[in-house]
């Protein structure tokens, strides 16, 4: 009887995992329109699609390249303060990116090596952004955990 219950429990766990899809976005773009279209609007659409099929989509974003600037809380006091498009878009982007974390449970991972090269302090990042040793390690880990890989350049 115990063996049968254990087998049924294991089958239930395997079936529960079937409804979970995973994706890791390799975010390197510094273009606001690309960020909005491919990441912010894209994630919302993808989450809605999978929810309509009663499936879950786990989303991670590995941040490096030119994308650091989108995850700094106070752009005016950052190395990106002269980017007029970013400064103008930042209030809206800040709200939309925060909602990705809060509403859609998106995991944001940022490359520490690039942060050091650009002299970005962790204290200037949004609270929900997690610092990882480097982008390659983040991408390797997420793909080995079963995430589909999508570049956003």
Protein described:
- The protein is α/β, with parallel strands linked by helices and 153 residues long.
- The chain has one domain (20-152): DsrEFH-like (Hypothetical Protein Ychn, Chain: A).
- Helices cover 48% and strands 20% of the residues.
- It contains 5 helices and 5 strands, in the order H-E-H-E-H-E-H-E-H-E.
- The chain has helices at residues 2-18, 32-52, 84-102, 112-118, 135-144, and strands at 20-27, 56-63, 107-111, 129-132, 148-152.
- Strands 4-3-2-1-5 form a 5-stranded parallel β-sheet, with helices on both faces.
- Strand 1, helix 2 (32-52) and strand 2 (56-63) form a beta-alpha-beta unit.
- The longest helix has 21 residues, at 32-52.
- The radius of gyration is 18 Å and the shape is globular.
- The N and C termini lie far apart (55 Å).
- Mean pLDDT is 90; it is low at 11-16.
TL;DR of this structure?
With 153 residues, the chain is of the alpha/beta class. The chain is built from 5 helices and 5 strands, in the order H-E-H-E-H-E-H-E-H-E. The chain has a 5-stranded parallel sheet, with helices on both faces.
């Amino acid at each position: 009887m115990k063996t049968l219950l254990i087998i049924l429990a294991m089958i239930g766990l395997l079936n529960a995992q079937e409804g979970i899809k995973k994706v890791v976005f390799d975010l390197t773009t510094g273009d606001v329109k690309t960020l909005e279209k491919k990441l912010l609007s894209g994630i919302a659409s993808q989450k809605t699609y999978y929810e309509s099929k009663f499936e879950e989509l786990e989303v991670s974003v590995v941040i490096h390249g030119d994308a650091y600037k989108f995850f700094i809380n106070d752009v005016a006091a950052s190395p990106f303060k002269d980017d007029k498009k970013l400064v103008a878009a930042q209030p809206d982007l800040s709200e939309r990116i925060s909602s990705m974390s809060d509403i859609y449970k998106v995991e944001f991972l940022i490359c520490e090596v690039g942060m050091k090269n650009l002299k970005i302090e962790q204290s200037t990042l949004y609270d929900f952004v997690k610092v990882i040793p480097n982008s390659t390690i983040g991408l390797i880990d997420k793909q080995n955990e079963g995430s589909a890989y999508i570049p956003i350049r």
